[in-house]
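question for whoever is on the cluster today: can someone run the full assembly for these? two chains, 731 residues total. i dont have access anymore since they changed the login thing
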Amino acid sequence: MFKQRLLNLIAITICFVLVMGFLGLEQNNAAAAGKEIIINFPSIWVGKDSKAKVMDELIAKFNEDNKDNIKVVVEEIADYDAYEEKMRTSIAAGSVPDIFITKAGSKIEPFFKSGKLMDLTSYMNEGWKDRFVGNILNTATYNGKILAIPYEFAITPVLYNETLLKDAGYDTFPETYDEFFVMCEKLKANGVIPLSLMTSDNAWTAMLWYSQLLHAFGGPDIYEKGFDDPAYVKAAQAMKKMFEYTTSDAVGANAAVAAGHFLSGRTVMLMNGPWFIGRIKSEGSGEFYTHVAVANAPAYIGEKGEKGGEVGFVQALICAGNQKDMGKEEAVVKFLKYLTMPDNVKRLSIDSGALFVIKTEMGAGDEMERLQKQMVELSNNAPYVIPHFNMSVNQEVATEFPQALSSMILGETSPEQFIETLKAIDAR
Amino acid sequence: MKKVIGKDIMEKLSIKYKSNIGIILFLLPIIILFTAFFLYPIGFLLVTSFYKWDGLSAPTLVGIKNYISLFMDPVFRLSIRNNIGWLLAGGFIQVPLATLVAILLARKPKGWEFLRTVYYFPNVISIVAISIMWMAIYNSGYGALNGLLKLVGLANLQRNWLGDLHLTYPAVVLYGVFYIGYFMIIILAEISSIPKQYYEVASIDGATRFQQELYITLPLIKNSICTCMIIAMVYGLRQFEQTYIMTNGGPANKTMVMVLYLFKKMHSFRYGLASTSGIILLIMGVFVIVGVRKLFKVEKYEM
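^ ran it for u. tokens below:
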């Protein structure tokens, strides 16, 4: 009886294994037979992202044009930290998505080194590279190979509430930090909170201000000078002072809280990039959008930074994983070329307010968004553009920056100790 | 005679051999799954804890350097202390509170079913949602806690609860211990299995209600309390969600816990150090389980 049962069990197991095997074979055969190629694209440009709507339409159009041949399947991951984490762990586990988005600098470097990204050099040499501005492809080049597509560009000037500033007696934004702090004091005295700052997650808005302060004190080559340059401590002292003019929940607040204060008119200034314009339009209370203007961060008289120097960077690059199947590789490249077509990029830019590193020409009927236009002008007139702090230091310093910053703001450490902490982390 | 004995032994061995094959075959799927999803990851963790590895390129052997740098790191030491705080709060505040409520509800006072539902209800809500709600309650600008303090004339006690060097950690730990529903249900189920005659006999003998709970209920639910304590303390040890959502370890790493520390090391492409902290977490988990079982001298009761 037991023997019979055992034999039955073995027979069922063998059948199961065979069926699963044939199913696997069926799938492989489907790919080999040139049927529809599926491109897996985990995307951050979904949900509330200002590019989500047009990106969705573009992908739908691509799928329609390539019906039965190529299908791009978007995996929606709206939270950037979660997205970044998932990409990293997937790639570490050997499962590289067909296409994914990443940031430049220290974020993309490990991916370059991994050898798991598709080499796009030969495709680029077929004329594709002419679509990109200047020498921007350098940000995607590693050991002479182009391993990604630089896509979204950003500068991060000050977004400010013009009306609240006028109420305090200011028709223009201050040009020096001395004037800036006087203005902050005046606003505070009037019962208005000047700045939206935060220290949680990556301390984004505070980190951008710190980057502005760094080049204001140390000049455009500040990152090459290292943590021993006095500009780092001076910038930390100014950063600490800025926290005297922010909301009571700034220490511990995340980007949503900081943005929420600005969008609801509780604070006057927020430092952020062009992708935020869409949110100002859609989430700002009442006529909020009409009150917002863009300005350069101030400069320090007598220091090394120049007036109008900007913090700017390639905000997003698109990478593709290595493909064994040549057909699929070509399908991926076809989709990437489609995403970088000037007309498509123009649509994305006009609708979202985001800036791109793809050359586009504005036609007679193409009206660039007001704030976006101001940002482009600031960028064009900037004597120099430097990347932000997180992008210019190693990943561990970037990760520890928010904790070290909150420690300094709460008085646990001094600005000098703050820099010493970062320096020690950098030395590990 | 010898031949007969030998044959007998061979037959017995044969039966044993056959039945062992059956047992092995039936256990095989779970052994494979256990090896693939438990033993292999632990082995992998152990091996990579001796390497410097960014998760993408080839790892480099560094010996016990990762262990040394972990214990040299004040943030890691603080995260161990914080985890101990979490597990003590879970084991010695949350579970006793759940036991007390379960004992009270087991007597089925008026409205006990409603109260049981109310206490259990938060367990069906995601921790993320609850954490976000508490972030709003603790917010210094518009939070309910500061609002309440102002309302009762204690405005001088208003704080930025999630951005204070000394108050953030207790604020994050303390609210969690009041979510007792899960443990309360386990203990309540155990109490309901105690035969009523025990209480009737005790009552006839003149035992007060307090004495009945002390000398009948508590000893008979000891194993359940032990299980709850293990679950609560292990949860305290692997605490992540609340801390990650509410403070991300801040301010100034004051609420850092081991899993978040591990997560941040992964985020910084330091997978070797992340594995090392994973191993230390595992060892601490074993100590907690063994310690609690020894504390309760876990045994079986015949009822």
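summary bc i know u wont read the tokens: The mean pLDDT of chain B is 90. The beta strands of chain B are 51-52, 60-61.
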